[in-house]
Amino acid sequence: MLSQIKGLHHVTSLASSAKSNNAFFTDMLGLRRVKKTVNFDAPDVYHLYYGDETGSPGSVMTYFPFPNAARGRPGTGEVGRTSFSVPKDSLKGWADRLTAYGVRDLKTDTRFGEDRLLFNGPDGDAFALIGTEGDERAPWTGNGVSEDMAIRGFHSADMRLQDAGASAELLKFMGYEETDRKGNVIRFRVPDGNEANTIDIETLHGVNWAGQGAGSVHHIAFAVENRARQLEVREALLDTGYQVTPVIDRDYFWAIYFRTPGGVLFEVATNEPGFATDEDTAHLGEALKLPSQHAHLRDRLERYLEPIE
Question: Residue 217: is its pLDDT beyond 90?
Fold first, then answer.
C-alpha cells in the first residue's frame, strides 16, 4: 500500500466558454483565478486554474474551455460531482447567493452526516458545497465572498461507476481507507493527508457510460509532495500492472497519468513547484502565460483567445 498520496491536487474539466466559466468561478463562487495559460496539446484553447490565494494543492479546479463544445452526457466511468468545503453554517447564505446569481434547481441533502448544497455549473457540471466543521484552510476572499462563507478548497470527488470493486481496491492500494458506506455509496479517505482527502464511489449498475463534453470532468489529480515521491508511486503502479505515462512537465507541477478499471482518468501531480514560478503571487492569473513550446504563438493566441477579465 502506498503512503505518498496526500489527497486531491486538482480536478480538470471541460467547458464551452472561457468567459462564462471564468465568471462562474471568480464572480459567483469567489475563487481566485491563479493561472491563465493554454492547453499543452491544443494551444488555441485556454487552460484556466481557480483556487485559493496561491493555488494550494487540494484547492484548484481547472478547465479547458473549448468554444461552443457540445455538452457531455452524464453516466458511469466518470467523476460525476466535485464538492467544495465551506463553513458548516454557511449553506443558507450560499443558497441565497447562488439564487441571486440565477442558479436554478438547488437541492439539499445529507451524506454521511454532512449537509450538502447541490447545484450545476454553466455547462451542467455537477457541484456541491459541503458544510464542514474544523476546516482551517485559509480561504481566498479577494472576490467579495466573506471569510465566514468562502470556499476552503475541495472536500471530495464522486466517482460514478458500474462496478466499484476494482476501483475500490485501487484506492486502497493508493493509501485510502474505507470509512463509511450507505446504500450504493462507499466513502474513502486518505489518513494524514491534506483536507481534500475524500473520494466517494457511487455504484450505478446498468447505467450507460458517460459521454465526455462540456461540463464533464476530464481527470482528477492526486497530490504527492515532490518528484521523488511521484517516481515511487509510478514504479508501484507499473509493478501492479497499470499503464502509466512517463513524467510530464506541466510547468507548475509534474504529472503522470493512468486509466482506472472503472474508466476514470487519474493523474498524480507534485506539489512543487507551484503557480508562482512565472508571476508574482500578488498578480497570479492576470497575464497570459504560455508553455515554452508555444511562446512563438503569443501574438496569434492573444488575438484569437476569448478575452476574459
Answer: yes
Burial degree of 249 (CB within 10 A; 0-12, 13-18, 19+): exposed
Give the pLDDT mean for 280-305. Answer: 97
Could you list the beta-strand ranges (E) of 168-252: 177-182, 185-189, 198-203, 217-224, 248-249
Q: What secondary structure letter does DSSP report for 174?
A: T
Does residue 210 carry a pLDDT above 90?
Answer: yes
By residue count, the chain amounts to 309
Q: For residue 85, give the C-alpha cell.
A: 468545503
**Does the pLDDT at position 309 exceed 90?**
no
| Burial (CB count within 10 angstroms: exposed 0-12, middle 13-18, buried 19+), residue 138 | middle
The reported pTM is 0.97
Q: Which residues pair with 200 in a beta bridge?
A: 158, 187
Q: In whole angstroms, what is the distance from residue 8 CA to residue 215 CA? A: 19
Dig out the grid coordinates for 208 from the structure. 450507460
Grid cell locating 211: 459521454
What is the C-alpha separation between 71 and 198, in angstroms, rounded? 27
Amino acid at 53: E
Domains of the chain: 8-304 (3.10.180.10)
Rounded average pLDDT over 76-99? 98
Q: Is the dihedral of CA 10, 111, 159, 168 positive or negative?
A: positive
User: Residue 74 pLDDT > 90, yes or no?
Assistant: yes
Spatial CA neighbour of 65 closest among 191, 218, 257, 278: 218
Q: In this model, does residue 112 exceed pLDDT 90?
A: yes
